[in-house]
Amino acid sequence: MYRGPFTPYEAAHLLRRAAARGRREETAQLAEMGLERAVEQLLRTPAPAPDPAIDDDPKANRGRIHRALVRHWFDHWLTTPTPAAERLVLFWSGHFVSEFQKVKLGRLIWEQNQTFRRLGPGSFPELLEAMARDPAMLVYLDNAKSRKEHPNENWARELMELFTLGEGHYTEADVKAAARAFTGWSVTSPRKARAEGRPITFEFRERWHDPAPKTFLGRTVRGGEEVLAVLGEEPQTYRFLAGKLLRFYLAPEPPRELVERAAEVLRLEGTYGLLRWLFTHEAFYAPEARNALVKSPVEYLIGLLYVGKPAPERALARALIGMGQVPFQPPNVAGWPGGRAWLGDAALLVRLNLLPALLEEDADLSVFMDGAEDAYAAVLPEGQML
Q1: Measured between alpha carbons, how far is 27 from 35 in angstroms, rounded to an integer?
Q2: Hey, which residues does 216 pair with through a beta bridge?
Q3: Is 214 in a helix, a strand, or coil?
Q4: Which positions ≥6 away from 92 have C-beta within 8 Å?
Q5: How many Å apart are CA 60 and CA 39, to the nearest integer?
Q6: C-alpha pair distances (Å), 297 with each of 198, 294, 350
Q7: Does pTM surpass 0.70?
Q8: Of the candidates 271, 267, 241, 273, which has an alpha carbon nearest to the alpha carbon of residue 254?
Q9: Which residues contact 293 (CB under 8 A, 6 or more apart)?
Q10: 112: Cβ–Cβ under 8 A, 6 or more apart, which residues?
């Protein structure tokens, strides 16, 4: 537990890491609350996000739909009373990735975003089960077409390598067994859904399913639910996730003992439980933890837009492309590489060119970066750090 002073200086660090946005008066309010109440305030139940008005007609302009989805999410992040929930949504969208270009339907992509907001703060097994039934995920990783005659291994492989255990903690036989277990986990036919005027949802196709017993991680399973249950009980699942969460919220290389403790907290108390533990831990406020993370392009823009001027939708899209992070369109199933990879010469130039377009001279950058006295400070290296 952190026992040091909790002044606006510490509150700015907490707000920057938890929410990626803030102003001077907000840090003063949090400091006045004291650390524990401030953390509870930031981690209260996420405010619901309204659904966007989008046209999923196959003939609609998909680029326009994609830009509208990004703007809609940004508008919510910039106005919600629970911005910490949105930074966690960003984490989950880089963990359980889906690509708009392949999924094609904006409604499915947004429903996935809503699932991260609704279930992301809580129990990981509950979120994992929702993702296994998520239409965007089933389409993106090809499980929607997986049949017992030809099981598709994409979802099964990424389920273990990227979403739960991590590389080296399963075998090819486990991948094949999981792929067979998830045969028949599909979605409503888009054409049928349009004809009947109903949404595309998860659909279990029993005729496609392989019901025979399989050996998965040394256990006998038949269906996908049992695979998920096994993964939800594996200590390695929580170790792997805790490491990713600490790299997202604390430091690029968190101490092993912190990862082990975080894994236990995550297993027992869920994701917000882990964040509550981390945000009140002495390691979070240590000098070496400040300015230890590079802002992603999304975090950089959110921080600037919150204290600066609004950006037109197309300008926002161009900036995100130039900086290398387009929401709902990761480069591959592993998501964005992050870290120093965000600061290549071309991407850094885009960041710096945004400053005069988005900031007034008297912009309040006290949360955006350490040591900011005025807008001119944003060109300093600290402006790129979280």
Answers
A1: 11
A2: 219
A3: strand
A4: 116, 120, 127
A5: 43
A6: 36, 9, 10
A7: yes
A8: 241
A9: 17, 248, 250, 251, 252, 385, 386
A10: 93, 96, 98, 134, 136, 137
- Which residue is it, tokens 């389920």? 159
- In the prediction, which pLDDT does 30 show? 98
Question: Hey, which residues does 185 pair with through a beta bridge?
Answer: 204
Structure tokens at 158: 């990424």
Q: Which pLDDT score is estimated for 195?
A: 81
Q: What residue spans define the domains of the chain?
A: 8-42+236-289, 297-384
Which single residue is written with the structure tokens 């309040």? Answer: 364
Residues 384 and 369: their CA atoms lie apart, in Å, by 8
How far is residue 245's CA from residue 252's CA, in Å, rounded to a whole number? 10
Retrieve residue 49's tokens: 């996000």
Q: Report which of 363, 129, 113 is spatially closest to residue 228, judged by C-alpha positions.
A: 129
pLDDT at 187: 98
Are 38 and 6 within 8 A, CB to CB?
Answer: yes
Whether the predicted pLDDT of 292 surpasses 80:
yes
Q: Does the pLDDT at position 190 exceed 90?
A: no
Q: Dump the DSSP string for 123-162.
A: -HHHHHHHHHT-HHHHHHTTGGG-BTTB---HHHHHHHHT
Give the list of residues 6+ apart from residue 35 with CB closer than 8 angstroms, or none: 2, 6, 10, 280
Judge whether 166 and 236 are in contact, CB under 8 Å: yes
Average pLDDT over residues 9-37: 98
- pLDDT of 374 > 90? The answer is no
